[in-house]
Amino acid sequence: MSEDRNKDEKPYRKLETQTLLQQIAFRQGFEALAASEEGRLTWVTSGFPVEIPIAMNVGVVYPEQAGAIIGAQKIGPEVSGYAEDLGYSQELCSYARVSIGSTDRPDDVPMGSLPTPQALLACNNICGTVLKWYDAISEMTNAPVFLLDTPPIEGEQLVHHKAYVKKGLKKLVEFLGSTFNTTLEDDRIREVSELSSKAIELWSKSLQACKNKPSPLNCADRFLTMAPVVSSRGTEHCVEFYEILLEEVEGRVKQGIGAIRDEKIRLLWDNIPPWFILRFFNKLAARGVGFPADTYTHAWSGLVAGADTDSIFDGMVDIYSNVYLNKGLEAKVDKMCQLIKDYDLDGFIMFSVRSCKRYSLGQLTSKEIVTERTGVPGVIIEGDMVDSRLFNEAQIQTRVDALLEMFI
Amino acid sequence: MMTNDQVIEQSKTELDQLAGMGRSAIGVLYPHAPFELILAHGFTPTLLRTNPNVSGAYETSLQTFACSLVRNMFSQRELDQFPLVAGLIFPGNTCDSLQNLGDIWRVRFPNDKVFRLTYPVADQSDASKEFLAQELRLLSERLSKDLDYPFSEDGYRYAVRLMQDFREAAQTLYIGRLLNSKTITYSQLASLVRGFLSAPSDGMLEKIKETATRVSQELEERNLKEFGDTLREALLKRDFHGIEFPVKLPYPRIAVIGGMTDPDALTRIIESLPKTSDSIIVLDVLSFGLKTVFTRPPEGDDPFEAMAVSILTSPGEPTQEGLPDRVRFLKDIVSNLYIHGLIICEQSFCDPDEFETPSIEKAVSELNIPVVRLPLDSELSDMSRLGVRIQSFLETLGSRKEGC
Predict the structure, then answer these.
(1) Which of B 76-135 lie inside 8 A of A, CB atoms?
(2) B129 contacts B381 by C-beta, under 8 angstroms
(3) Contacts of A361 in chain B (CB under 8 A)
(4) Among all residues of chain A, which has the CA nearest to that of B134?
(5) Secondary structure of B102-142 in the HEC alphabet?
(6) Which residues on A lie below 8 Å from B62 (Cβ)?
(7) What are the beta bridge partners of residue B375?
């Protein structure tokens, strides 16, 4: 750490682009409210091919993002409690619990409850829980559930898997058409897909820039700035946001400015972050520990492209089936090893999230393999992304300290 | 009549004998496995069961929040408590715990032959059928290639007959319990079904057929045979329209619902209670029970498509799309089969079970039927507390009767 640094100076640098996030969030909030009042709002899971509802002029909003907001407000346990009062077990996904809780008592969750949906669009490429979660919301709101079933992939996606998912996409168009009296036009899906691809391309460039030393973005930066690519891909304002972000990121790289002031140790983060304690990363930043890469924000990397609806659908089948969480342990290990190599990382932290079995079960095994293949050490810490009752900070600190001692 | 343990022991012996005759076993973890396909390849499919006496050997590979079934299966394998199998078929796309377990298994036990059969979750009629049929074809190819046991048409015909004879016999036992719970105890029914699914063979079929014949005769003597057939068809069609019980039924009649809970676990708890017998349970709606038994046989020229249809049209699981249909079916059961109370089994850390429970609880409570939730783990580690729950539930039902 440099001796002449101001004692009050924070160990990390706040992104200027972050201030735009609030504007985007407000805009989304108003748009969702308007769509709900007009009877054309859907709730969608983060891995859903959102380009289709957007191209069909159907509003979209993301309960997982609302869950992150509830987590960040540190009201996760309270809002989870509303769902637990309805009989939902504390062992279930906390995104789902706070979503159910805030739907049941929206007035008690002003920041995080979502406008009433007219349909629920789930894609199980991120987990099997989404269907059960949306079934529960459907019972509360009477909104019908549409499931896009993307069977998990082992190795290459098989032909019959592709055909099945593509039929699902066509069924989705029928579902939206009959539910919202709308159609899908070639020109519009092409336009939305291009915007989506552009946003993802810009986002990917910002992520790639983190290969530089020091890394221009830290974990918390990426967790926050990923919001638009999750919730607004396919729109012009999303592209604009990532153009501005990339400009700032590239500017930092040119000037040799890092996300943290004194980057000494570069680590990989695996899994969803604990939204209620993002300062966890800032505290580590004070010790010179940065996270130039993570498996979570790299999930949005595929480009949706094609000349017409049919070819765009083929692309969507590929992109939305091949997301990180829809692949086997071998593919996850490969991805982690690749990130460690490409971003020249010293070690990794795996966050074992009790809420998320799809992401977390297998970490004990993959930790061993990743270390074996890359030679870098890792540690597993356990907790939750929203429910702070399941996060033992002191215990986690001890484990992280043990990892960091290996680098001294 | 054989005891539970005797039936289970017999299934083990049967499995050993079949192995001695060169018929190896393939372990399956999911009840809606293609038993006919495995038999057609010359193997004996064996539904792997949880073992309450095994615990705690999973910690280096699985976190504590893996579902209890998954933890128990892994521990059994780690401790060499599994039956000798030539391969294992893991279900894909059913739940996250089982999905990931298959991957972990391959790493931890690299010498095990692990196959995966991926199921469609969405209800997409023909598309789902085509998908599953192709999955079954690929599984068949892998069984041929990796284990050198080709698919046999004759073997398939034998398997269809064997499984259908089993289902029909087991359906008779279910009907018997619904009409006269003294005909056969629930634990006997459960152990016969479980015994067969652990070692599907002519020998095990004979046992279940013997009991079914006796139950059928008793129904005939009481002039209930015809109504029993109507009831069986109603359960198969999941349509109870026009069903009117011709006999006065005892009180209380309790049904049990849940996912992959071993029926045996429930009977153990009930049998441990003083002055209580499992005669109170007239019906289960469990994966290893009614949902497997009331499955239609594969029909049609293409065996793979026929098996796919058979699996996809069996009573739905909480791992699949279709909660409203499942809730409707349960409400129909409760209303039409004169159920006075419902026990909901929730496997510890089982997402599908735990998500579906509040919906079931709400729907059945709307019918003014008392409900009790039983959070279970495979080790039955909380048996005494669960027993207390059931006892107080029975007291509630008792006071209701007095109040009538």
Answers:
(1) 92-97, 99-101, 103-104, 106-108, 116, 118, 120-122, 124, 127-128, 130-131, 134-135
(2) no
(3) 62-63, 65-66, 96-97, 100-101, 104
(4) A160
(5) HHHHHHHCCCCCEEEEECCCCCCHHHHHHHHHHHHHHHHHH
(6) 361, 364
(7) B346
| Nearest residue on chain B to A145, alpha-carbon basis | B321
Give the integer Cα–Cα distance in Å for A387 and A297.
21
Hey, how many other C-beta atoms are within 10 angstroms of the C-beta on A154?
Answer: 19
Across the interface, of A93, A328, A364, the residue whose CB is closest to B61 is A364
- For residue A355, give the chain B residue with the closest CA: B65
The 8-class DSSP code of residue A116 comes to P
The ipTM of this complex is 0.94
> Which residue has 């998912």 as its token pair?
A165
Helix, strand, coil percentages (3-state) for chain B, rounded to 5, are 55, 10, 35
Please list every residue in chain A whose beta carbon sits closer than 8 Å to the beta carbon of residue B122: 147-149, 168
Chains A and B form CB pairs within 8 A to the count of: 150
Q: Nearest CA to A300 among A217, A198, A229?
A: A229
Q: How far apart are CA B4 and CA B187, in angstroms?
A: 7
Strands (E), A72-164: 119-123, 145-148
* Interface list for A 151-210 with B (CB within 8 A): 151-152, 154, 158, 160-161, 163-164, 167-168, 171
DSSP annotation string for B153-213: HHHHHHHHHHHHHHHHHHHHHHHHHHH-TTSS-HHHHHHHHHHHHHS-SHHHHHHHHHHHH
Is A7 exposed, middle or buried, given 0-12, 13-18 or 19+ CB atoms closer than 10 A?
A: exposed
Contact between A120 and A146 under an 8 Å Cβ cutoff? The reply is yes
Residue A404's φ and ψ, nearest 5 degrees, are -65, -30
Measured between alpha carbons, how far is A223 from A68 in angstroms, rounded to an integer?
Answer: 10
In one-letter notation, the amino acid at residue A91 is E
Q: pLDDT tens track of chain B, all 404 residues?
A: 566 667 677 778 888 888 888 889 999 999 899 999 999 999 999 999 888 888 789 999 999 999 999 999 999 999 998 888 999 999 999 999 999 999 999 999 999 999 999 999 998 889 999 999 999 999 999 999 999 999 999 999 999 999 999 999 999 999 999 998 888 999 899 989 989 999 999 999 999 999 999 999 999 999 999 999 999 999 999 999 989 998 888 889 999 998 888 888 888 888 888 877 777 899 999 988 999 999 999 999 999 999 999 999 999 999 999 999 999 999 999 999 999 999 999 999 999 999 999 999 999 999 999 999 999 888 788 888 899 999 999 999 988 775 54
Contact A365 B356 (CB under 8 A): no
The overall pTM is greater than 0.90: yes
Which of 319-358 (B) contact A at CB < 8 A?
A: 319, 321, 323, 346, 348-349, 351-352, 354-358
Q: Which residues of B touch A382 (CB under 8 A)?
A: 63
Comparing CA positions, the residue from B404, B295, B316, B296 lying closest to residue B360 is B316
Q: Do A221 and A332 meet the contact criterion of CB atoms below 8 Å apart?
A: no
Chain A segment 84-103 residues within 8 A of B by beta carbon are 86-89, 91-93, 96
Q: Which two tokens stand for residue A387?
A: 């429910």
Place of tokens 């440099």: A2
Please tell me which of the candidates B66, B107, B373 has its beta carbon nearest to residue A329: B107
